[in-house]
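TEACHING EXERCISE
Course module: macromolecular assemblies
Task: Read the component lines below, then compare them to the predicted structure of the full complex.
Student: A.B.
Group: 4
Components provided:
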Amino acid sequence: MSRIKSAEIKIGLEVHCQLTNLMTKLFCSCSSDYRGKDPNTHICPICMGMPGTLPVLNEKALEDATMVAIALNSNISDRMLFFRKNYFYPDMPKNFQISQYDKAGGVPFSLGGYIQIDKEKIRIRRTQIEEDPGKLSYEGTIESSPSTLVDYNRAGIALIEIVTEPDIRSPKEARLFLEKLRSILEHLGVSDGSLEGAMRCDANISLKGGRRVEIKNISSFKEVERALNFEITRQKSFIERGIIVGQETRHWDEVRRITVSLRSKEEEQDYRYFPEPDLVPVTISKDYIQKVKVKMPELPDDRMRRFIEQYDLTLQNAEILTRNKEMADFFEECVELYKNSREISNWLIGELLPYVRDKNVEIEELKVTPKHLTDMLRFIDDGTISRKMAQSVFREILSTGKMPDSIIKEKGLKKILDKQYVVEMVEKVLKENPRAVEDALTDEKAINYLMGQLMKLTKGRIDPKVAGEIMRRRLSDLTKGIS
Amino acid sequence: MVDELVKRKKGLSKKEIEHIAWLARIELSKKEVNLFAHQLSDILTYFAKIDEADTEDVPPSYHVLDLINVLRKDEIKPSLEVTFQTVPQTKGRFVKAPRMT
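Instructor-supplied answer key:
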């Protein structure tokens, strides 16, 4: 970002997370386990909005939302109402979505709060409970399809909407915020971000000198950084050419990786929000909140502090590990099997994390288990393999899922402990590099080059400490004129 | 919008009728626009009478029942296949709806 300083970028996020720990939908008893199921097999007269049916709030959804609000330091309203958001679109069979509203006497589930990212506090504006719409598909392309095909299995699934203040200053910070939010929700056990479409996001972004642009349809947290980067480049080029960036809603096209203008003529007043007459008000007492609070599991920040104390980790490493619940769980499972926690942390952060980022996969999809890693670390400790060899063993584990002992056996990676072999190899290196030997006789540091050649020749299978001693002894023999 | 209209004691404009029709994804003929502009205006004027009531010290009510906190347990009940069978237009297991623009 050349000419636009980060202080001039304002990003706010509107995150929708399915409460995936619920067995049923938000207002009816249909199973929420809709993924991979035949269309319209998880529907009933309530979620299909048949006349005369009455929605009833899922008590576990209320408990989930309470946990989320507490974890986000948000103030839970003592009385809550649901509102109808009216719009005519086939994704909702009722022609409205049951949601909440912060105007016309409505109060959202909770107000205020924040998430701490390093030293920055990203403020939360509000959280609210609402239902997910159904899923639309088309015959052929969206343009040529004669009709819209709808699957209502997802209609009525419980969502929590989390809206931030425009406190985010860069696409990277947006990603960090979402990672932290996901970690919090997964620690609470209310939402599983690895499930497709369980966590979605709309983003508002404005650059100094331009109006606010909303980007919709960002179907996963991973896409957010990309979409925002695109939008900054687009808006920046407008501003630099003196073109005004107008307020509009854009759509993130995941395939083409661009945002496209969305012609939406619906404005807030067009939704004609009004209190949902089929649902009675819900009061949330301090006593209830306290009861939920006691049940709450450990949150990422507490876990981070515990990691520092219990496992002697640096603040930075503890923070990285707890940023992802799967990673933190993996770490603790390793510690159960192997005592050197710092070593484990180094391998996870130095080797596993870059792999996960690079391949864009979830940790639970990986073939590596805590047993793989800790077995391998034991082979380093007992001298079977060198640290360098371990890196290739680890890569092999990641791609094949084989156990370290069989990889070592198959690849003949076992460290060569035969001293005579090391001596022979040292001689060979000295013979092949006469100029480097000359340098090494006068300059201590030049020995590093020879050592590098030696490790290359032996494919890192010898003990560098032993080899170094032999190398030094031979060089000093040469200085003394012994050949 | 409605509040304002009631205060203005004026009818709905044709433009507003067209917008409302668009929100409901209904196409209206010119004749119908005229007809509904009058009919809806009459209804709104009628509602304006409610505005005459003195509600100064009356707290707003959001629900007519005295019930609060009606909740259900998170327990699955079988979905009803008959719900799908009553759908007027289907394609395979999908509900068929008009294509939206």
